[in-house]
Amino acid sequence: MSIPNIITLGRIILVPVIVWAIVSSQMEIAFAIFVVAGVSDAVDGFLAKRFNMTSELGALLDPLADKALLVSIYVALGIWGAVPRWLVILVVSRDIMIVSAVIVSWLFDKPVEMKPLMVSKLNTVAQVGFAALVLASLGFGFQPYPYDLILIGLVTIFTLVSVSLYLVEWVRHMSTIEAR
Question: Residue 87's closest CA among 159, 18, 142?
């Protein structure tokens, strides 16, 4: 168990804490935890690359931690009414579709190589930016307009484009399966 993996596990442990903070209307705490999680993500990535501490476990845990954090925050903020529910459904549905495609690939003994697309990285940046803006505006009492609308637009576009590209690649990959 390497230091980057321990940091990533710590980020996973923060997920229920940040959800608790949101549902308890402790938005300053939720924002602070979100910042800690973001810094820990950068630190574990830096340590893994800089000191050659990358691992197969880390390659699985890091995106899992990121998705667990973002999906949980979006769902909690959607229930709280701070994020449009249609956006929550879009963000969560994208991740469910991608995970489902990976599982189906495994079931057909045709595992798909997971390599993040540039649009997917941009999507993550937009999702993180929007979540941070919403948490900060709720915690510190300022109006996020018009930045919230800009980020909602970016999250929407990047989410739709990334899921479309992933699904096209997945269908292309799976089309090589022969009928039995």
Answer: 159
pLDDT of residue 160: 98
Residues 6+ apart with CB under 8 A from 93: 163
Can you tell me the distance from the alpha carbon of 73 to that of 18, in angstroms, rounded to the nearest whole number? 7
Q: Which DSSP string corresponds to 103-122?
A: HHHHHTT-PPP----HHHHH
Neighbours of 112 (CB within 10 A): 18
pLDDT higher than threshold 80 for residue 178 = no
Confidence label for 61 from pLDDT (cuts 50, 70 and 90): very high
pTM: 0.92
- Domains of the chain and CATH, by start: 3-174 (1.20.120.1760)
